[in-house]
Design brief:
Length: about 150
């Protein structure tokens, strides 16, 4: 197992590649059935005559898949202290059955918390690509991480 990741380990401008996710028809339909039961997420025939032009994963499913890649890639082995939320999510292209998604993140800002010396704050930009290296989603967020030293000293 890799070394535990703390706020000090994030370097502004550094891009890190996460794993991959194979998307299946069955999981697209299962997610949509429970959380986003619109016809273009449930049925190929119904989806054909929509702007998506065929069965596609819910954008929220795409977010959930990215979250899993983030967890598997580094988050569960980090000092993560959560997030106040997403600043922006963009769904750029439909995610289809059979797609193989890859993701990466870039740390765009890292600063110590002003109010909590044991916290560090990172702003992250995530990108998700399909097997044709076409971007399908981006999200920008702020994340909190614990610092190596509980009192915030280097």
């Amino acid at each position: 197992m890799a070394e535990h990741i703390y706020w000090e380990d994030f370097q502004v401008g550094r891009t890190v590649t996460l794993g991959e996710k194979h998307v299946t028809r069955e999981e697209i339909i299962a997610f949509a059935t429970e959380f986003d039961p619109q016809p273009f997420h449930l049925d190929e025939t119904a989806a054909k005559d929509t702007p998506l032009g065929g069965l596609a994963a819910s954008g929220w499913h795409s977010c959930a898949m990215l979250m899993r890649m983030i967890c598997d890639g580094y988050l569960v082995n980090s000092s993560s202290l959560g997030s106040p939320g997403l600043d922006e999510v963009k769904w750029l292209e439909p995610v289809r059955p059979g797609d193989v998604l890859t993701a990466r993140y870039t740390c765009v800002e890292a600063r110590p918390s002003e109010s909590r010396p044991n916290f560090g704050v990172c702003r992250m930009h995530y990108e998700v690509f399909n097997q044709f290296d076409r971007p399908v989603m981006t999200w920008d967020c702020t994340q909190f991480f614990g610092r190596r030293s509980a009192d915030g000293s280097p």
